[in-house]
Amino acid sequence: QVQLVESGGGLVQAGGSLRLSCAASGRAFSTYNMGWFRQAPGKERDVVASISYRDGSTYYADSVKGRFTISRDNALNTVYLQMNSLKPEDTATYYCAARYMNTRTYAYWGQGTQVTVSS
After folding, report:
1. Contact predicate 14/117, CB 8 Å
2. Mean pLDDT throughout 42-59?
3. φ, ψ of residue 60 in degrees (nearest 5)
C-alpha cells in the first residue's frame, strides 16, 4: 500500500513557474513507477509525465515537453514536477500516481493539487 500526498499547487501568472511535490508513504518507493496526471474541468484525466523506477527514464506529453521536468528522490520518497513557462491551458488539478514495477495500472493516487495559470 502506498499513500500519496501532493503539494505545491497554486495561482501563477502565465510564464511563471511552480514545483509540485508528491510525498509517498509506505514501503519500497523505489519499486514504483511514478506519474503526474492532470484533469481540467470537463476534460479527461491525462498523463503529463512519468518516471521509471528501474532507470529513471522519463516520458512527457507533447504539450509539456521542454517546459516540465519530472524527477524523483528515492531517499525522500518524493517525486517532483517542475513546471516552467506555464500557460493558461496548463490550468488543471494535478494528480500524482504510483504504478508498481511492471504492472500496467496506476493503482495508487493522491488527492490532487490545483494549478491555476492566469493570462
Report:
1. yes
2. 97
3. -135, 140
